[in-house]
Design a protein that fits this description.
The structure is a homodimer.
Chain A (H helix, E strand, L loop, with lengths): L2 H14 L8 E3 L6 E3 L6 E10 L11 H18 L3 E11 L5 H17 L3 E9 L5 E10 L15 E5 L4 H10 L6 H7 L5 H9 L5 E4 L4 H12 L2 E5 L7 H6 L5 H9 L6 E5 L4 H10 L4 E8 L4 E4 L5 E2 L13
Parallel strand pairs in A: 4-5, 9-12
Antiparallel strand pairs in A: 1-2, 3-6, 4-6, 7-10, 7-11, 8-10, 9-11, 12-13
Amino acid sequence: MRLSEIGEFGFIDRISGRVGNPEEVVVGIGDDAAVTVLSPGMVLLSTSDMLVEGVHFDLAWSDPYSLGRKSLSVNLSDIAAMGGIPKFALLSVAIPPELPLDFLERFIEGFIAQAVSYGVTLTGGDTSSSRGGFVISVTLQGEQYPEKVVRRSGACAGDIICVSGTLGDSALGLQMLIKGERSGAAIMRHLDPQPRNVLGRTLADAAIPSSMIDVSDGLLADLGHILAKSGTGARVAIDSLPLSSCFKRAVESSSPEFRRYTLSGGEDYELLFTVSPERLDDARSAAEASGTAVTAIGGITSGNGIILVDSAGGHYTPESSGYDHFAHV
Amino acid sequence: MRLSEIGEFGFIDRISGRVGNPEEVVVGIGDDAAVTVLSPGMVLLSTSDMLVEGVHFDLAWSDPYSLGRKSLSVNLSDIAAMGGIPKFALLSVAIPPELPLDFLERFIEGFIAQAVSYGVTLTGGDTSSSRGGFVISVTLQGEQYPEKVVRRSGACAGDIICVSGTLGDSALGLQMLIKGERSGAAIMRHLDPQPRNVLGRTLADAAIPSSMIDVSDGLLADLGHILAKSGTGARVAIDSLPLSSCFKRAVESSSPEFRRYTLSGGEDYELLFTVSPERLDDARSAAEASGTAVTAIGGITSGNGIILVDSAGGHYTPESSGYDHFAHV
């Protein structure tokens, strides 16, 4: 069945029937705007991400359920990076006429499943046909007490740089998909990343990080954003970067990919944050409490830019610092 | 110049340099999420609309400045229809590589000009390249006291149905554009609609409407949404529909287009609302105070569906009730 057979409003009715109706949603799907209530004393956090077929995903290997989950996850990761609590999502899709209704149903199921897991309610959005590919645009709203919100701009010389989980898996997974592989842990990391919202909130609630960002464009690019906003430099011990066992098995440590994936591979959706040395133990405790490993990978300096040092004490210069959607078009 | 020459972050920097920084924006463009503050006691209103090249606009006749304005206006109209106060916008764009940077600059200028006019601050969004056409996705956030918010569901039998401004101009303008014309009032109505936010808020602040919606899909379709949500019917006097002088000059009242444009033409972005007979004078005063004409066009009935009556007392049956983005694909 195609979407044209049930129509736009039929499709919206199908979606709204699957969405919960918590007390803080006064008006959900089906009016001109959603009406929602924030917790007393909290400020509004808002982030939008667009996923475009042929740019962010390829329907040759993206299953619709994971794509639905990921569309929300990339936004959840932004709320995690602010230390916020995700609350309400708006989902807009531009749908090519040839896309089967089954695909859309599975996509929505994935989106809503991930929303439920993270305590998020779908409150609105838009549907349109598309003359190009499938385009997904999500706005996620969260909340937090203003004094708990963590920005990119608070890193100070002497702070320790920490990162959650492992790096490079998503870039490896994408490469495996391009080569024709269709399963494995790295591929799942790429297709269905798990944002670190419990960790982000736990760190923020205890006011531990001096700055925080999620690793979406690659470690060097995202650390670069913290440094630019904070007016600081950084020194990173590249042999201390946390790597998964599947990554270490799949990628030769002497290969150029090894450094490229770990330093510049995007879409790991880990949290990168800075913490003063006296709060490092608190960060480790918060990490343990939230079930996510955290690794110290370097320190903030009063200089400019990023100095990469290997375990032999040598300096390393990367080929490129990260991903820019327009640098190559 | 192309966007590839300045890159994604260069483009974002250019945008953020043009955006104001009011007190209620704690963190604007340039972090993982925007941080904003709502007025005490108010709830959050949120709406998203996507505009897709080849579906909602045609670059053969859409100038970028008006397109930027309209991208916000269609969302402003949704906030107006809830009786809300527009506050914060997130703008996401998927940009084809061939689109000149000049076009984007003018598009952003139009968007920001309209934002400034309506008291809205751009707080975030996303940029991506596109393999298809230009795609625009806007989320607009507003606020209002919960008891002032106007929904679609409050229409009661006996209420008067009112509409602001005039109907059919946008559909006429689109038809003129398709025929190759490039100027005129109807064309401007289509390319650069003016949402009725002052009227919507004035009506809501005085708790005048029992229900409200904006006319984006066409009078019959949008009135149909009110009826469906309210569980009522309606009787509309089709010869009382407000028409502009340019519309009356351009469209023969005996032509099939005359009824089609006024009853089913979309994108007029007028407000359609219901009001109890004893509040009709208040509605007229509110309309006068906000400088927008309001016309009574019929009444809510306890029946089902819409009965159209002409001035001779005859019943009229329309060809189609409104626009569905997927009914024809």
